Amino acid sequence: MKESLNLRVQDFNLESGSVMVRSGKGDKDRITILSRELIPDLRKHLEAVRNSFSSTNIPVSLPNALERKYPKAGCEWNWQYFFPASRPSINPDTGECRRHHLHPSVVQREMRNAVRQSGVNKHATVHTLRHSFATHLLMAGVDLCEIQELLGHKSLETTRIYLHVMKGMKQSVESPLDLLAARIL
Q1: Which residue from 33, 38, 75, 81 has the highest number of Cβ atoms inside 10 Å of its Cβ?
Q2: Is the pLDDT of residue 103 over 90?
Q3: pLDDT tens-digit readout, 89-98
Q4: Sheet containing 12-13, strands listed edge to edge, beginning at the edge strand earlier in sequence
Q5: What percent of the chain stands above pLDDT 70?
Q6: Average pLDDT, integer, range 138-166
Q7: Given pLDDT bands bounded at 50, 70 and 90, which one contains residue 169?
Q8: How confident is the model at residue 156 (pLDDT cuts 50, 70, 90)?
Q9: 126: closest CA among 105, 155, 100?
Q10: What are phi and psi of 141, to 5 degrees?
Q11: Going by C-beta distance under 8 Å and a sequence separation of 6 or more, which residues neighbour residue 98?
């Protein structure tokens, strides 16, 4: 969830349907995919974020030493959080007022509400969405190495765990001879 909350406007490329995840798993950057189905909703969301951004002169918090290196960057559109908090907060260390991203508890609460409303009678968290993403990619025949890259796993063995999960979901394996015979007949 931390990866998604830290996303900035500049990380999204809605034209290509991709998003850059910075300092994700293993503190690495990676590009992953966005659903084309979500692009219109993401555009609407981005417009609402832009309207909120336009109505304030409070800078956004910046990672590491970027604020010292680029003092005005916190007021630039591309550095704004894609999922901003509804109001700014005071940094307890510096006393400065900054815009920040949503708090994880907000996302967790929304996920609980969505699961409850869906009628799904299984435990599901925000992290469950990551597992579902990987499992569905596997079921669609996407190469394991490609899934490894999309998820940002350092080791292929970590990604292989999804193969085990998927085994229980597959139909029984058919002999290649049976498949060939079915084509001939």
Answers
A1: 81
A2: yes
A3: 998 778 889 9
A4: 12-13, 18-21, 30-33
A5: 89
A6: 82
A7: low
A8: confident
A9: 105
A10: 85, 15
A11: 58, 59, 60, 61, 74, 88, 89, 90, 91
* Assigned token pair, 111: 């996920």
Q: Which residues pair with 33 in a beta bridge?
A: 18
Instruction: Tell me phi and psi for residue 159, to 5 degrees.
Output: -70, -30
pLDDT band at 163 (very low <50, low <70, confident <90, very high): confident
Give CA angle at 47 (112, 129), nearest 5°: 30
List, in order, residues 6 or more apart from 70 with CB less than 8 Å away.
62
Model confidence pLDDT, tens digit, residues 67-88? 889 988 999 999 999 999 989 9
**CB atoms inside a 10 Å sphere around CB 39:** 14
Show contacts of 167-176: CB within 8 Å, 24+ apart. Answer: 169/135, 169/139
